Amino acid sequence: MQLATGGLSPSVLGRLRAAACVLLASGAPAIAHADAGATTKVDASLLVYGEQNRAKVTEPTARLTRLFPDGQTLSAQLGIDVITGASPTGALPSGVDSVGPPQTYTTPSGNVVTVPPPPPDRIPLSPFKDTRVALDGSWFRPLGLLTSTIGGNFSREKDYQSLGGNAKVSLDLMHRLTTLTLGAGLNHDSVFPVGGTPVGLSAGGLPLSRAHDPKQVVSGMAGLSRILTRRWMMAVSGTRMREQGYLTEPYKVLSILDPATGHSVGQLTEKRPSTRNRTDVLGSSVYHLTRDLVYVSYRYYWDDWSVRSHTLDLKYRHALPGEAYLEPHVRFYSQTAASFFRSGLVQGDPIPEYATSDDRLGSLRTGTIGATVGFRVPEYPGEWTVRAEYIGQFGNRHPGDVVGVQRQYDLFPTLNIGTLVVGYSITF
C-alpha cells in the first residue's frame, strides 16, 4: 500500500518492494547456463517481509521471457502484494493516562474500527489491509553497437493507481569496452484516499470534493560503464526525477502539544508541497577474483525537500562446489530530515505552510545484513536462489522540537525488519 507502509523510508521501501523483481532480473549468472537453442525462460519468486509489530507483506512474482535467435527478448511480469499490519498515524504519545472512551476512526483500508486509547507513552498505530496487483512488460532489441529497451507498467491497489512507460538505449564504444546509456520514464498516477482527500493542516480532516488526485512522475537517467581490466569494471550513473501533483500522505496526522506539559491536545492532517525534484548519483564497481566476485556501490541522493542520503552497499559472491554460490551482503543508509518535518506542533505557535511527522521523511539510519545462496538440485532442471536479510532502522529518538513529557519518550524506537526471498528460474 503506497500510503500506509509502516516505518520504512522511501528508499528502503522501494528496494524491498522490488526485491523479488531484482532477484528475477539479476538471476544467478555464476551458475546460469541455458541449453543451446532455448527460447523461453520462466522465473518465479516469493517475497516475505515483516516489520516488528507493524507491516507484513507477501509478494509472489512470476516473469515470462521469450528469447529470439537475433537476440531480441520480450518479457512480461505479474506481481501481487498482500499487505497487512499497522502503520504509525504520525501522532505522538498522548502523555496522559488513557481514561477516555474508545476511539472510532476509518483506517486506510476503508474499515471503521473501534479501539481503546493507546497507553500514554505509546505511538498510536492504525491497522490496515490491502492488495496490490502490478503488471509490467519490456522489449529488448540489439541493433549492432546499439541496444534498446522499451517497457511499460501498471499497478492498482485500494487507493492508488499507477500507469507508466520507459525507454532506454545503450551504445557500445571503444571496442565495446565502454557503454553509454540514456533513458527516460513517465508515470501518470492517481491517488483516491478512502473517505476522500482531507484538507491539509485541518483539524477535522474534511474531505475535498474531487474523486481522485493526479500525480505525474517524469524521470531521466544517464550512465557510463567501463571495463578497465580483464577483471575489473566500473560504472557511474545519474538520475533526475520530478514529481508533481498530490504528494501528501492523506492518512497521516500531526499532534498538537500543550506548550507546558507536552500532552497531546489535538491533531492536524499533514500537508506536503505539490512538487518534488529528486537527484541521485550512483557509482559501482565489480571485481573478479580467481573464482569470487566483489560488488561495491555508493549512492548519494538529494532533493528540494532538503532530504540528503548516503547509501553504501557491499556484496561478496563466493563460489561453492557444484556450481553453487554464497553471497553475503552488508548495506548502510543514512538520511537527513525534510525541511518541513515536525515531530509535533506546539499549541499557540503559527501553523507552517507545510508539515509532516511521517518518520520516513525524518532523520534516520538503517543497517542491513544478509546473504543469498544460489544452487541447483542434482538431476533436476532450473536453479534456486534464497535470500534472507535483517534490517535495523533507527530514527532520532529524542528530537529537539518536542516539549514537556514528550522529551522522556522514545519517539522513534528501533524498527526490526526481516525479509526472505525464494526464487526459481528455468529455461527450455
Could you explain the architecture of this structure?
- This protein is mainly β.
- The protein has one domain: Porin, CATH 2.40.160.
- The chain contains two helices and 21 strands.
- The strands form three sheets. Strands 1-2-3-6-7-8-9-10-11-14-15-16-17-19-20-21 form a 16-stranded antiparallel barrel. A three-stranded mixed β-sheet has the order 13-12-18, with no helix packed on it. Strands 4-5 form a two-stranded antiparallel sheet.
- The longest helix is centred in the N-terminal third of the chain and has 8 residues.
- The N terminus is likely disordered.
Helix/strand layout:
Layout: H1 10-17, H2 19-26, E1 40-51, E2 56-67, E3 73-88, E4 103-106, E5 112-115, E6 125-143, E7 146-157, E8 160-173, E9 178-191, E10 213-227, E11 232-245, E12 253-257, E13 264-269, E14 275-288, E15 293-303, E16 308-320, E17 324-335, E18 345-346, E19 364-375, E20 383-395, E21 415-427
Parallel strand pairs: 12-18
Antiparallel strand pairs: 1-2, 1-21, 2-3, 3-6, 4-5, 6-7, 7-8, 8-9, 9-10, 10-11, 11-14, 12-13, 14-15, 15-16, 16-17, 17-19, 19-20, 20-21
- Spatial sequence of strands, sheet with the most strands: 1-2-3-6-7-8-9-10-11-14-15-16-17-19-20-21
CATH topology tier name: Porin
Strand percentage: over 45%
Number of strands: 21
Mean pLDDT, all residues: 88
List the main descriptive attributes of the protein structure presented here.
21 strands, Porin, mainly beta, about 425 residues, three-stranded mixed beta sheet, disordered N terminus, globular, single chain
